[in-house]
């Protein structure tokens, strides 16, 4: 077993609650380079630049359930109000038993129509939920690199909660690694929680796991 998995297993303590900042996570994974050595056999006929990494939430759930007692996976996402996203969220809720938290995506007029300023962050909802339910878990795993969660991590550590952050190098705020008990780079867990998919062509917006594009969501 890889050293990074052994390390994760060694720092997980007791019951675990996982909190996923979906837009932040998807954005960091979207820019990961696909190494030709990682391409599965059924996609070997594609060049690596025609492929992309995507979060595989079923793999993520199974991976953590196999190494620790997971009491909750909370998924925070903007509501794009599309059929494809609703199908995806139905799968997360009904099949994977995720806890879903969503809110409408807001658009502002300070950018061009081709590149709108869109916002739907969860820097209030996620910390409130994680704080109110802190007695339910021993370890909190956060999938996000957003600096807004620094205070939450420090607060949880102050009440003796174990905090672990997953994000991507270059996408994590410098405040987060010192604020948590342990930080892991997602790229080291790409085989455990990600999958390689065919990337959309240039004419179509990049979509992730049934969601609409989140490139400009803040």
What is the CATH architecture annotation?
3-Layer(aba) Sandwich
Uncertain runs:
203-210, 212-218
Output the radius of gyration.
17 Å
Biggest sheet, spatial arrangement of strands: 4-3-1-7-8-9
Helical stretch count? Answer: 8
Give the structural class: alpha/beta
| Order of SSEs | HEHEHEHEEEHEHEHEHE
- State the distance separating the first and last CA atoms: 37 Å
Tell me the overall shape. globular
How large is the share of residues in beta strands? Answer: 15-25%
Largest sheet: 6 strands, parallel
Number of domains: 1
Total beta-strand segments? 10
CATH class: Alpha Beta
CATH topology term: Rossmann fold
The name of the CATH superfamily reads: 5'-nuclease
How much is the average pLDDT?
Answer: 88
What can you tell me about this protein's structure?
This protein is α/β, with parallel strands linked by helices and 218 residues long. It has a single domain, classed as Rossmann fold (3-Layer(aba) Sandwich), CATH 3.40.50.1010. 30% of the residues lie in helices and 24% in strands. It contains eight helices and ten strands. It has helices at 3-11, 22-30, 57-65, 83-95, 125-132, 150-158, 176-179, 190-193, and strands spanning 16-21, 51-55, 70-79, 99-104, 106-108, 117-119, 139-143, 162-167, 182-185, 194-198. It has a six-stranded parallel β-sheet, sandwiched between helices. It has a two-stranded antiparallel ribbon with strand order 2-10. A two-stranded antiparallel sheet has the order 5-6. Strand 3, helix 4 and strand 4 (99-104) form a beta-alpha-beta unit. It starts with a helix and ends in a 20-residue tail after the last strand. Mean pLDDT is 88; it is low at 203-210 and 212-218.
